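Protein modeling request. Please complete all fields; requests missing the sequence field cannot be processed.
Requester role: graduate student
Desired output: 3D structure, token encoding
Chains: 1
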Amino acid sequence: ISPTRRFLVSNDAALIDDDEDVCVIDPPPTPSSVFGKPLDEGTKRRNGQFIRFIKGFLFDFLFDGKTVEREYARFYALETIAREPYFAYLSVLHFYETLGLWRKADYIKVHFAESWNELHHLLIMEELGGNDQWKDRFVAQHSAFFYYWMIVALYLLNPTHAYNLNQAVEQEAYDTYNSFLETHAEYLQGEPPAKVAVKYYTN
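Delivered output (203 residues):
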């Protein structure tokens, strides 16, 4: 099983698929209710443009991807940031529940499962050496800090907007991983899988 193979499917379920070995982690249950105001197509388009700009300006510049090691550093940064929306959702949901305004237990369950999934993506990248350099950790952690608070604000204003922005982030992550897999397929097939990946996806 390739150590970094990830496909994003419904509810951020994890799927590893090679020639013969298939391991599927069932997605968490879908919440029975939907809340937040609908977004117009223009806002959705701007969300996608914003994420592509940030990725191109920051990550494609700082993590040039000329070597597999720099790709792992890029993925470490992406996975550090990818956890923040779920932390933000949970923080706001707990806050509203504390005030007695909402009680969205189904959303809390889903978002905790998603954060747990993202944690293991991060652990895989750490095992592969993605966090070896101080500058990479600095960029990833500080970007994650600001992204967390941005998502908290968006989720307070309109959960739908926060979800849509995260959808754009996950799409960019998928495209980045897919390009990496196509470019380095032969190399990855000859490498052993990360121990964290084997343990998580087979237990």
